[in-house]
Amino acid sequence: MNKHAITESERGQLLKTTLLTGLQGRSLQRLLDSAIVEEREGRSSVFRQGENADAFYCVLNGYVRLFRLSREGRHADVRICQPGEVFAECMIYGGDDYTFNAQTADTATLARFDLGTVRRLVEEDSNIARSVMTCLSQHLIDTMHCVGSDRLNTAPQRVADYLLERCPTDRGPASVQLPFQKNLLAGMLGLAPEALSRAFSTLRPRGVTVRGRMIQIGDVQALREVV
Amino acid sequence: MNKHAITESERGQLLKTTLLTGLQGRSLQRLLDSAIVEEREGRSSVFRQGENADAFYCVLNGYVRLFRLSREGRHADVRICQPGEVFAECMIYGGDDYTFNAQTADTATLARFDLGTVRRLVEEDSNIARSVMTCLSQHLIDTMHCVGSDRLNTAPQRVADYLLERCPTDRGPASVQLPFQKNLLAGMLGLAPEALSRAFSTLRPRGVTVRGRMIQIGDVQALREVV
DNA sequence: CGGATACTTGAACCTAGTCAAGGGCTGTGG
DNA sequence: CCACAGCCCTTGACTAGGTTCAAGTATCCG
After folding, report:
1. Would the N or C end of chain A have less CB density within 10 A of its end CB?
2. A136 close to A86: Cβ distance less than 8 angstroms
3. How far is the C-alpha of B157 from the C-alpha of B165, rounded, in Å?
C-alpha cells in the first residue's frame, strides 16, 4: 500500500463526493487537509470487524466491499462502495470497533480520514457537521431501502430495479454498461453469482440481453412491468 | 389522535432515549420544548411513503412498524421501533419525502419533533448536532447489521440471536419475556409469522420452550451453538 | 497460445412463503 | 359459570425462489 498527500487531480475527485460536495472555503480546506490518500492492491483488507476503529474512508477509484462473515466462514456483502462514496463514517459517533469488514475489490484509491481529527472538526465547524449528517442520513435511507428490497423483491426484480435506476431513458430501447464485474453486482443485490446469472436469464424473454458488462434493454417500459 | 405538550412523566421517558440521553442544560431544554406528544390508536398511520416529510418521532410508549409496500401490495417490515427509540430522524438531512411507512402496532404515545425546528436547533447547537449524529450512526450500524443478518442467517439462527441478545445470563438456564406479540417479532426478524413459529419449533430440541410470550431457554451455551 | 479467472448452466437440496385448517387463549354475554 | 366469538398462533401441505456443488464455456491477460 502506497500513501501520499492529496494531489490536484485527487482533490478534484474528492470534491464530487457526498461528503465534500456541500462544503466550501475554510470548512472544505480543513477537511481536505486531514485526508491521506492510499493506493491499494486488489483484495486488500481495509479493516476488519472487531478492530478498533481509527479512520473512515472515501473511494476515489475502484470498488470496496463491505461485508460480514458468519461463524462458518460464509460471507455476505452488505454494501458495495463506488468511486465518490464514503464508508465507515458511522464510526465517527458509532462506537469503538468496526462492525463489518472492508476489502478492496480491485486496485483502489482511497482517501483516509482520521476519526479523531474529524471528530474535532465536526465539533468546531457546523458545516462539516451538516455534511456528515447528510452523508449518514443518505446511507441510512439507502440501507433501509436495501432491507425492504431484500425482503420484498425477487432476484429478477432487484436486477430490473438496478438496470432501471441506471437507465438513461424512460421508454424504448436502452443500454447499461456495468461498471464492475457481475460478481460485485451479485453481492450488491444480495445474491450468489449463480442467482444473478439466472435472474438475467429470466429477464431475457423481457428483452434484456447480456454480453459481458454490456446490458441491452429492448424496451424500458416493458422492463418496468417486471418490478 | 390526541395531542398535548409534554407532561412531567413523559419528560422523564424522553430523557432516557437515544436522542436526548447525551444532552443537558440549555440544549436539552430547547429540544424538549420543540416536541409535542401524540396519543395514537392501534394501527394508525404516522406517515406514508412518498408524503412530504415534516417531522420525526420518538416512541414513548407502544410500538411502531416501519415498513415498505411492494406494488402488488405485499408488505415488509424494515424496523420495529420500541419505547425509547427514535425514527425518521434521517429526514432531517435526508431528502424531502418519507421513503417508508410508519404505523403504530398498538396504542402508542409518540413525541413529535418538527423537522424545520430541529434543523435550526442543529445548526445553532453543536451538542444537539452530536446527538443527532450519534442517533443516525447507531441506526445505520443496526440497519447494516440487519442486512448482513438477513443474508447470512436462517430463521432459527436469527431467533436464537434475538434471544441471546436479551438473555440476562451467559450460561445455564434463562428465560426471556417478549415485550410484544410474536407478529411483531416476526416482522423484526424479516419472517412471516408462520416461519417464526417453525423457527421456535426447530429450537425446541435445543432446549427452547415457548409459552405465550414467555420463552424458556434450557442452556444458553447450547443455544449459542445454533448461531 | 495457454492458463487463470469469471461466468453460465444443470441438478439436487433446502429454506421460507403461501394457503388452508385446527388449537388455544381471552373477553363478552347469556 | 359456562358458551361462544374473535383473535393470535401453530401446524400441515405445497410451491417458489435461492443456495450449493459440479461441470462446462467464455473471457481476459500474460
Report:
1. N
2. no
3. 12
Q: What cell does A125 get? A: 465547524
Among 2.30.33.40, 2.60.120.10, 3.20.20.70, 3.90.420.10, name the CATH number for the domain at B2-152: 2.60.120.10
What is the residue whose three cell numbers read 434471544? B163
Kindly report the pTM of this predicted structure. 0.96
Burial class (CB in 10 A: 0-12, 13-18, 19+), A39: middle
Q: Which architecture, in CATH terms, is B155-226? A: Orthogonal Bundle (1.10)
Contacts of B190 in chain A (CB under 8 A): 147, 150-151
Query: b/e map of A48-58 (b: 16 or more CB within 10 Å)?
Result: eeeeebebbbb
Q: What pLDDT digit, counting tens, does each position of A95-146 carry? A: 999 999 999 999 999 999 999 999 999 999 999 999 999 999 999 999 999 9
Q: What is the pLDDT of residue A227?
A: 67
DSSP-assigned beta bridge partners for residue A214 = A177, A211
Portion 83-112 of A in contact with B at CB < 8 A: 90-95, 99-100
**Cβ contacts of residue B136 below 8 Å, gap of 6+?**
A90, A133, A136, A137, A140, B89, B90
Pick from A70, A93, A133: which is nearest to B93 by CB? A133
Cβ of B63 < 7 Å from strand D? no
Question: Under the phi-then-psi rule, with left for phi > 0, alpha for psi from -120 to 50, and beta for the rest, what region is B103?
Answer: beta
pLDDT tens-digit readout, B125-177? 999 999 999 999 999 999 999 999 999 999 999 999 999 999 989 989 999 99
CB atoms within 10 A of CB B16: 11
Give the CA radius of gyration of chain A.
Answer: 19
Radius of gyration of chain B (CA): 19
What is the per-residue burial (b if ≥16 Cβ within 10 Å, else e) of B211-225? Answer: eeeebebeebeebbe
Pick the CATH number of A2-151 from 3.40.50.300, 2.60.120.10, 3.40.350.10, 1.20.120.1760: 2.60.120.10
| Residue A57 near residue A17 (C-beta atoms within 8 A) | no
